[in-house]
Amino acid sequence: MAGSAVEPKEMKKAPSGYWLWLGEHRAEIVAALGGVKKAPEVSKKAGEMWKAMSATAQAPYLERSQKMKDELQAAKADKDNSKEVEGMRKKPMTPVFAFIQEKREEIAAMPGISGLGAISKKGAELFKNLSAADQAARKKIWEDQMVAYNLWKESEEGQTALDLKKGLVADKKAAKKEKLEKKQAKFARKEARAAKAAGIEIETSKDDAADATTTPTKPKTGRGKRAAGATSEKPPLAKKAKVQARGGKAEEPSISIETDLLQEAKQLGFESALKNLASRKEIVSSGKSGSELLAALVKSEGLVNPAKHALLGA
Fold first, then answer.
1. DSSP letter assigned to residue 109
2. Which domains does the chain have, with CATH numbers?
3. Of 53, 61, 60, 49, which is closest to residue 18 (Cα–Cα)?
4. Would you say 87 and 161 are in contact if contact means Cβ atoms under 8 Å apart?
5. Is the distance from CB of 288 to CB of 255 less than 8 angstroms?
6. Cβ neighbours of residue 32 under 8 Å, at least 6 residues apart?
7. Is residue 296 predicted with pLDDT exceeding 60?
8. Which of 56, 71, 82, 278 is placed for a possible disulfide with 255 were both Cys, Cβ 3.0 to 4.6 Å?
9. Is the whole model's pTM more than 0.85, yes or no?
């Protein structure tokens, strides 16, 4: 029994060879179970039959599965590449991060090293142990790269590329926000339908519609004026949100961190620590750059307060 073909672009994940086989032989499996169609029984029987098949019999399905995976990966790569800005340059990595990136495989192979945090910590230690001449040479390379990067950044080509990059980032955030709002709206509609089926009246405000929150009120009983004039209270969540908005503090200033630097911090496992450190009043007043903040975090092994003291004491 041939199953309907599924276009790779319609899938987020390619099915395994087993699932391709199951989709095409479900009727045979149900027949083997005497007509039983319950998913648990079908899955159990299908697993037994798949395991009993020879490698030769499984091969066509496994090959098709691999082909679909390859096509999905290629489609994803094309989609990602389409988002790249032509002529865009990445900000040069600082000497410490460039060293860690260069030695990443060696560090990862060392005993007891597991995860980005451990790799970053060990890499920072190894960098400290380099000779002064080696560190100075690496710093000189980085400074030369920064000079070239800043010249490009100030050029017309650089300004154009950076503006396009900002536009892509903004579009991505907008798409993510729209997706979240649709999800919240769908949840609100589902909640409203369930409440209506239960005979509960749902009262919503504009704020509730944005937050996809609803508050049920008791249905009217029809007992004269009391029922006709009864009014339900505003949703407590909306009230609380308004009180917090009035009494909340203004957003604190923080040091601007470039996207590439944030990506480096994320790879090292220090993204949240970097954002935390960049929001500290003393650090903001110090005029330190994002690169300096991240370098201090690497030396302090991701600890914010020691990094702050090191920066302010420098």
1. T
2. 8-82 (1.10.30.10), 160-245 (no CATH), 259-313 (no CATH)
3. 61
4. yes
5. yes
6. 45, 49
7. yes
8. 278
9. no
